Amino acid sequence: xxxxxxxxxxxxxxxxxxxxxxxxxxxxxxxxxxxxxxxxxxxxxxxxxxxxxxxxxxxxxxxxxxxxxxxxxxxxxxxxxxxxxxxxxxxxxxxxxxxxxxxxxxxxxxxxxxxxxxxxxxxxxxxxxxxxxxxxxxxxxxxxxxxxxxxxxxxxxxxxxxxxxxxxxxxxxxxxxxxxxxxxxxxxxxxxxxxxxxxxxxxxxxxxxxxxxxxxxxxxxxxxxxxxxxxxxxxxxxxxxxxxxxxxxxxxxxxxxxxxxxxxxxxxxxxxxxxxxxxxxxxxxxxxxxxxxxxxxxxxxxxxxxxxxxxxxxxxxxxxxxxxxxxxxxxxxxxxxxxxxxxxxxxxxxxxxxxxxxxxxxxxxxxxxxxxxxxxxxxxxxxxxxxxxxxxxxxxxxxxxxxxxxxxxxxxxxxxxxxxxxxxxxxxxxxxxxxxxxxxxxxxxxxxxxxxxxxxxxxxxxxxxxxxxxxxxxxxxxxxxxxxxxxxxxxxxxxxxxxxxxxxxxxxxxxxxxxxxxxxxxxxxxxxxxxxxxxxxxxxxxxxxxxxxxxxxxxx
Length: 556
Known about the structure:
By secondary structure, this protein is α+β, with helices and mostly antiparallel strands. It has ten helices and 33 strands.
């Protein structure tokens, strides 16, 4: 599919050195700062339609873009900064929230578990991707769920236990997925003075070690625990403090820090790193691996001397290598082609429409599955094609049933029920793949199996035949009713009129009663009507009927 319009968040020509914490890197042909998951998806699809290499990072505190022009798009997640307490102990935070901000949010709420993150450079997305740790804390200890978008534009939810493999090792370091948000579980409380003291202790230690004298990426190399001592100590024993190459220097206070003294290059920084690695191996028999993440095209010598092959997928080009990319049109960094069905199209958390604190539903999610290929569906149009499921996740917190999530139950037995939206329901909107068409369907269900469906020509304008909802207007839908999930399978014949260039637009919602309205995926907070603000428009009602804002899913 071709996406002709350049996304609004994309600009042409940007010095990466001018905008990143480390202050190193060449110019990117295209640069993007998406403000929402939808804008990020738009960037990914646009770049792939133009066969542009894609690189992604946060603040650039642990990323190192090559010096030469980057003939592709660099996407930074720094504008994804929403964070709020879904429950008293569950913090939802997007990937662009800084580590220091996480610590400060927890300080204000009196929640322990994140004080160690104070003044740690970088943002939450990269912290999760690398399973960062310091001062006795590790992000794997508090990250309960991780939300990602892969290069195909598919939202996914990973549990922490499936992501974190160990020290500086995660699933996400080898998969072409972008961390867009995290749910942090922080059940323990602490007095403010206790948390503040720990935060100040962490900050004081960083100042004592002169972490902030000049820009650095923090630890340049990972620790190798088989060596028996930290990498900084190994380099100190090698006499490397103060070693310089160009404007790059090994810190005289911490031998695993490489400073940018001002105007250094990626070539000099990695040249110095290669020298450090060689000295550690020859003098201390210590085989060390980079923690900093180089991005771009690097010559064969740098690739070999810095062992860049250990940092994830790479792609050889003549005598150079592409490394650190999310995607490249020539392969190497592309995911393996999926085989078999059902196939995941979208798995998303529900977020409160206004992101109002303490009204979250962190145990409920939505999932869409494609049940057969488009070619098979065209041959068998009456067979189930799309599966919609509302799922209640099993957690250690409590053994809940659906009644705690869907409190307003219809009085009648489960069946097609007009005015179902006056009770607690899960909703799915499916719109025409083209943003220019206003057509869409709305399906609603309860956990017990009550359901209703409507068809629209435009927002809130029902098709003539659907002015009064009627069961016989819809083909037979196959219902799923289980203790931990409910939903329905939709036939291809129903959806075919809405498919445009192998795309649909979808939106999942919960309408539970009271002030409980939820979106999955959530829309961008671009106006006061979408952000909870008790001083501005507190009585605004949610509007789910906005097909142009529905999530785009690609069908195979």
